Amino acid sequence: MASSHIAEYYAGKSVLITGATGFMGKVLVEKMLRSCPRVSALYLLVRPKAGQSMQERVAAMMECKLFDRVREDNPDFHSKIVPVSSELTQPGLGIGAADVERLTACINIVFHCAATIRFDEPLKHALQLNVIATQQLLSLAQQMHHLEAFIHISTAYANCNRRHIDEIIYPPPVEPKKLIDSLEWMDDSIVRDITPRLIGDRPNTYTYTKALAECVVQQERGKINVAIIRPSIVGASWQEPFPGWIDNFNGPSGIFIAAGKGILRTMRANNDAVADLIPVDVVINLTLAAGWYTAVQKPKSALVYNCTTGGINPFHWGEIEHHVMSTFKRNPLEQAFRRPNANITSNYLINQYWILVSHKFPALLYDLFLRLSGQKPQMMRIFNRLHKAIGLLEYFSSQDWEWNSENLNMLMSQLSPGDRKTFNFDVRQLNWPEYIENYCIGTKKYVLNEDMSEIPAARQHLRKLRNIRYTFNTVLLVFIWRVFIARSQMARNIWYFVVSLCFKFLSYFRASSTLSK
Ligand SMILES: CCCCC/C=C\C/C=C\CCCCCCCC(=O)SCCNC(=O)CCNC(=O)[C@H](O)C(C)(C)COP(=O)(O)OP(=O)(O)OC[C@H]1O[C@@H](n2cnc3c(N)ncnc32)[C@H](O)[C@@H]1OP(=O)(O)O
Ligand SMILES: NC(=O)C1=CN([C@@H]2O[C@H](COP(=O)(O)OP(=O)(O)OC[C@H]3O[C@@H](n4cnc5c(N)ncnc54)[C@H](OP(=O)(O)O)[C@@H]3O)[C@@H](O)[C@H]2O)C=CC1
């Protein structure tokens, strides 16, 4: 490996990571273990979940394919991982006294990734996790005797009520402490009722609470070295540890899958709007570089890094649609509902028309078929869930934002040539068609666990679906025509005229072929 200031910096350091079991957290843990192999220990704040203890969850995570390269380099990589039990919504983050003592004694750098990223999260819970837990983690960080940097992962959409977003922390929509105090005594139904008024021109509680969290981080800037990373729409990995790694349905991934399965046929999005996707490995490389820079340079103010692609290497939703469809036609998903053929439109009425014709009508027909064959209807339920998800995402695919990326450029200029390679976050080199193809194949392999060797069978299934569609369309056409004929004398005359013309042609060809023999 080329000499690396960043890897050198992390050598011998103890790192605390929240959200390590999540999409980005896992990539962060993997990258640290692979590219900063002399890091002393990674302390992961993890809660028990779904009947699994935190140790079992971390052990299962390490088995994941994502860690194959690290496993190859160092089969003993587990020894660096120290799981710490923590429920971030509990007082004191639910960390035991002995663990608090251990963490305050040894942690050098904190990466705060944990959050609820659901768009429909009730405000109280989003506030608890995204704001109050951040505040508590900052308090814990202040007690750490050897802390060098605190890196907070925010979102580029925290200020999505603005069109142009600079790398600054904007004044919060409300003073976080005031909101926390007021919501404390309100019951859930009151909070639900006033939520739209509170979030104002933001689309959901997620972006609103992430904006408040940034303000909470800024309030601590004099006491600890903090930096904020603001990724846009985080997608599958571009290069590391291998192209196309993705493990969830969030953001566009669920949309790609639904389109690949032939379920999603229409969606409201602006073809010409910038699709600000950012590969997960780029975000993590920037995060690690920002950790190094914050700790070593100790900038006076909290630096914010907008981590986006639109201003540097723009790509649009219309182009995404084209490449997603083309990839899934060449590499079909298994057991597709219909042939992949999704179109995006910014026109509300056209979208509603296609929802009726291409979503609801086929779902009704299929559910009828299921009922008649003694099975439980399910398609309408799936479409209702899909429509809910799309409804929540449309805000982001129907408009453009402009993010300033001066701090990101400054940081890139500070890296050594070796670090620029090992911790690459230069998206000018990103080849979009290739990236989208790997992304779609990644959803097939790692989200749906489909085997690439089954592609011929999936293609055969698509051919069967095409034949069903041709047969259905022909039957429908004949049926409509027959109904029409039964009601109109003129249609009957046209029909008899066409049929007799066909007969005349047929007998003419038969006669001419008999003559030529
Ligand atoms: C082919 C044409 C493509 C053109 C592309 C055009 C547009 C792209 C579309 C969108 C891009 C915009 C993305 C904006 C991101 C903004 C940036 C951020 O800050 S990222 C953080 C983003 N957060 C999210 O993405 C979370 C959004 N999800 C939710 O809020 C919720 O999951 C929900 C959508 C409200 C659904 O909640 P519900 O309670 O009903 O379900 P669950 O979450 O419990 O999930 C149940 C089940 O469904 C799976 N699932 C979840 N989401 C989807 C989905 N979008 N599509 C399909 N399936 C989905 C989930 O994994 C669960 O599965 P299982 O039961 O097996 O565990
Ligand atoms: N994904 C994206 O497109 C984007 C994400 N971001 C930001 O990046 C960060 C990481 O996002 P991402 O990895 O996608 O999110 P995930 O939903 O994949 O991961 C969230 C993580 O937070 C943990 N967590 C949630 N609730 C609790 C709790 N009560 N106690 C302890 N841990 C908890 C989860 O743990 P558990 O496994 O136990 O649930 C999980 O590890 C977030 O801050 C998000 O706002 C920003 C822009 C875009």
Automatic annotation (TrEMBL):
Keyword Transmembrane helix appears in the UniProt entry: yes
UniProt xrefs under PANTHER family: FATTY ACYL-COA REDUCTASE 2, MALE STERILITY PROTEIN 2-RELATED
InterPro entries: FAR, FAR_C, FAR_NAD-bd, NAD(P)-bd_dom_sf
GO biological process: lipid biosynthetic process; long-chain fatty-acyl-CoA metabolic process
Annotated TM spans: 470-488, 494-511
GO cellular component, one term: peroxisomal membrane
Gene3D superfamilies attached to this UniProt entry: NAD(P)-binding Rossmann-like Domain
Described purpose of this protein according to its UniProt entry: Catalyzes the reduction of saturated and unsaturated C16 or C18 fatty acyl-CoA to fatty alcohols. It plays an essential role in the production of ether lipids/plasmalogens which synthesis requires fatty alcohols. In parallel, it is also required for wax monoesters production since fatty alcohols also constitute a substrate for their synthesis.
Topology term for the membrane: Single-pass membrane protein
Catalytic reaction equation(s): hexadecanoyl-CoA + 2 NADPH + 2 H(+) = hexadecan-1-ol + 2 NADP(+) + CoA; (9Z)-octadecenoyl-CoA + 2 NADPH + 2 H(+) = (9Z)-octadecen-1-ol + 2 NADP(+) + CoA; octadecanoyl-CoA + 2 NADPH + 2 H(+) = octadecan-1-ol + 2 NADP(+) + CoA; (9Z,12Z)-octadecadienoyl-CoA + 2 NADPH + 2 H(+) = (9Z,12Z)-octadecadien-1-ol + 2 NADP(+) + CoA
Organism: Clupea harengus (Atlantic herring)
Annotated Fatty acyl-CoA reductase C-terminal domain residues: 359-450
GO molecular function, one term: alcohol-forming very long-chain fatty acyl-CoA reductase activity
Enzyme Commission designation: 1.2.1.84
Keyword Iron-sulfur: no
UniProt record similarity statement: Belongs to the fatty acyl-CoA reductase family.
Protein name listed in UniProt: Fatty acyl-CoA reductase
Domain Thioester reductase (TE) residues, every copy: 17-286
Compartment(s) where it occurs, according to its Swiss-Prot or TrEMBL record: Peroxisome membrane
